[in-house]
Design goal:
Helix content: 25-40%
Oligomer: single chain
Structural class: alpha+beta
Strand content: 25-35%
Number of strands: 5
Largest sheet: 5 strands, antiparallel
Length: about 110
């Protein structure tokens, strides 16, 4: 399993618009992608114009399919990308999984 975490600083005043793009993207991309195991996006009420993406994929091929999808290219690489100041892509390997992901990828 592959976990990706993206802390994203948005341009000033872009929080609502960015959340709308994410809400539009979720059912068109992650919800229909076999290899996308979870797609969660969080806001920080104390930190405006900021989102945190936490995503889990079956493997690198699933992540590549996710980022290569038409929905991703149009909405995330397209519209959403114009709303951000900066982001960092952080790859992680799971140590302890919640029950939803517990048996994915052979991890207990």
């Amino acid at each position: 399993m592959l976990a990706k975490v993206f802390p994203i600083k948005l341009k000033d005043g872009m929080q609502a618009a960015a959340e709308e793009v994410v809400a539009e993207f979720a059912p068109k991309g992650p919800a229909v992608e076999d290899g996308t195991l979870s797609f969660r996006v969080y806001r920080d009420p104390a930190n405006p114009d900021y989102l945190l993406f936490v995503e889990h994929f079956a493997d690198q091929a699933a992540y590549d399919a996710h980022t290569g999808s038409v929905a991703y290219q149009e909405l995330i690489a397209g519209r959403f990308a114009g709303m951000i100041v900066e982001f960092v892509e952080i790859g992680h390997e799971p140590v302890c999984l919640d029950p939803v992901l517990k048996n994915v990828g052979g991890h207990a």
